[in-house]
Please model this.
Amino acid sequence: MALVLKGFLGVLAAIVLLWVVGYSLGWFQEAAQVTREEFGPRALLQKYEWFKDASAQLDKKQADIRVYESRLDALETAYDGVGRTEWDRVDKQQSNLWRVELAGVIASYNSLAAEYNAEMSKFNWRFANVGDLPRGATQTLPREYRPYEER
Model:
């Protein structure tokens, strides 16, 4: 019995010593602080809001791409069967401007989609799953956005 008690007290003393050393060096506090900063309710809400904002921006960029494409299609339809060299100068300039703007929106979309996908792949974000949304959220976020590809 005395041997068991001595063993128990020895283990207890080692645990207390490890705790005192760890506490004085900040081992346990830093780990708890990092956990709180990365996975606490405030951090999860901030991350959810970033993903929600990025998702809305990506949806808007997709809509902008469709608008530019429909404008270009309408202009090309108006000149159906006519070579581009025979277009009115103003229409050629407008077409060129829309193509440049479309390229910019596509590049911006692809960049944000890549960032969104990289952030989403870093961790299994609970709020991307149905049933694990933060309070007040009504819709899950997409797991991934596909890069825009020219048609």
About this structure: The helical segments are 2-25, 27-39, 41-78, 89-122. The chain is about 70% helix and 0% strand. Residues 41-151 form one domain.
